[in-house]
Amino acid sequence: MRCLLVTLLIATMVQPARAYTNMLSICAGLDEFCVSLDPCTQNTHEDILVPRDAWIHTSAISNRTDVFLADSNPAVALNYYSTQYARVPEGVTLQTCQPNFTTYAATAAWECASAASSPHITIVGACVRGYNAGCGSSTQPSATYRGKNQIFMYSFSEHYGCNNIPNVSQFLSSSDTPNKVLPCPRVSGEEFTGVPGLCSFECTGDFRTENNQCVLKCPDFTSDRCERRFYSIESCQGARTYHKCAQCAVIPGHGATDWDPAVATECPTTPCVAGTFGAEGWCEPCPVHTTSGSAIAQCTPCARGLYTAGPGATLCLTCFATLPAIAPVCDDGFEILRSVASIDAYFSSLGGSYDVHNTMAEFCRAQHACLPCRPGYYASAGGCIKCALGTYQPNFRADTCFDCAYGHNTTLTGSVHVDACLCQPGFDMTIA
Known about the structure:
Blueprint: H1 2-14, E1 24-27, E2 34-38, E3 43-44, E4 56-57, E5 85-87, E6 92-97, H2 101-107, E7 121-124, E8 151-156, E9 170-172, E10 181-183, E11 190-192, E12 201-203, E13 207-210, E14 213-216, E15 230-237, E16 241-247, E17 254-256, E18 269-271, E19 276-279, E20 282-285, E21 290-291, E22 300-301, E23 306-307, E24 317-318, E25 334-337, H3 340-348, H4 360-366, E26 369-372, E27 377-380, E28 383-386, E29 391-392, E30 402-403, E31 408-409, E32 422-423
């Protein structure tokens, strides 16, 4: 006998507890004339199947013929098969109405008569275990004539059902059914674990548990690496190692390399190679017409008569040392010059006013200079020729020279101004 008792106790313990279901009660008047209906199993207390979401005539839900035929209230004694009182649980919506007998006779299917002939009543359930305040003593008025609310339909309210065990990231609105499955409140960095329905979680990755919340392990750290020219002054271990970074000091002639987490607190650099210079922590190419060796902080300009073909050079080249592959051609009114001395002589003859245009290094890189025929010259056959005696030219790019007035002559070729025209012996200079 004792062994049997232990076996029965074990069998009882391993059976899952069935959730309490708030019953739907449909009554004809007083509580003793009621049918209780389980909205989850869809069976009455007499084990009669009453399906959800279908119109049902009250005559089909009880084996007792007297339940919906009479009650102790004479005012409703003629209201056979009508629902006079309903206790509707939370999560269930009940609709009642007078049936359309014409439709039933033709199709054997129940539907409501027009609302004009009989009100359509909808009750959104609020009853929970213990008959709370949401359950009134009467949810609809007493009938005044036969068959006022003979058919009804019950359904789950939106989002409700008969739910038992959700997953680990959900919980039930109530252990009683009908109920809703609700999402567990989200917590940054959580991973829900453990028993479904309890919303238990553990903090993962960059988070730790504090006051039943997940908080960042490294709240003041925003990056897991430092940029080039920066180094780590403080680190924090989360899912990754995070760093606070500061700018490295500049080493002249050196350029920063990529930050290395293996030596996070150091500032890796490398000497700048020849043709570059180190400034502000970067290695930059030397500008055109300058050069450098390795580990240099500033490039050296090429001397006059020397140049570079482009930036980043290590050696200066001699100007006009080689002929261009294609012989240069200048526009009309220009002459071509290919030596430092001739170019300097050209600008010197202009008295220094045009020295700003003497970009010798650029002439060297182009391997020639196209310069306009200067005053005192005129263009001829792709070159510039001095004005002859007795002529002058004050303009650039002229194609001829002006003659002096009759009886006047110049003392030199290449005259620029009319003032160079002098009155010759044997002529009088008459001023009109």
